[in-house]
Please model this.
Amino acid sequence: MGENVNFQDLFKKSMLHLEAFRSVSYTDVLIGLIASFGIGMFIFFIYKKTFRGVVYSYNYNVTFVLMTMITALIIMTISTNIVLSLGMVGALSIVRFRTAVKDPLDIVYMFWAISVGIAAGAKMYPVALIGSAAIGLTLLWLSRRRIREQPYLLIIRHSEVAITGVRTQLRKLNYTLKSKTVRKDYIEMTVEIRLRDDNTAFVNVLSAIEGVLDVSLINYTGDYAQ
Model:
């Protein structure tokens, strides 16, 4: 008899869970998915527009759209039942993101996508829209400001004959010496300079100096060069 009672109680609890899921409005689910998709595409556009790395990854950018929608679905699901929400939190706690993130700014986009998904899943659409607009405009403004004056590494290999001419040209660039290697046949200098509007005509001037073997200009982003 006890087993029958336990089975009936279990069946009743299962029916209550089903009723809780049935209380979810399909309209709300559809609106939440559309909102998360739209804002996810906005994140996709901002990431592509402000990307300054070496190689742009389309698949990596697409994950921001999917991450936003999946997070919204999770929030919609756990909002229907507190027991399920605790179980979902426990299940998600074992998930590990093992993909190497080269640019720290990529982490910001991940948190942005997750935050928007949470807001959309919780039906807080104004928070998601206004917050995303503010973050997107901030990223665009910061990326344009960085483009105006970019750091470069200038590598010059020259003989002793060209020392005076090289120093004269470098004074015009307001450089910072990073390294200097003196060998028997030549001297190699690495300096950091900042340029506006990609004006690289000075490279030809330096290479034309007598005694200069070669000149290399590399765009420097702090962690890697391109």
About this structure: The beta strands are 150-158, 176-182, 187-195, 212-219.
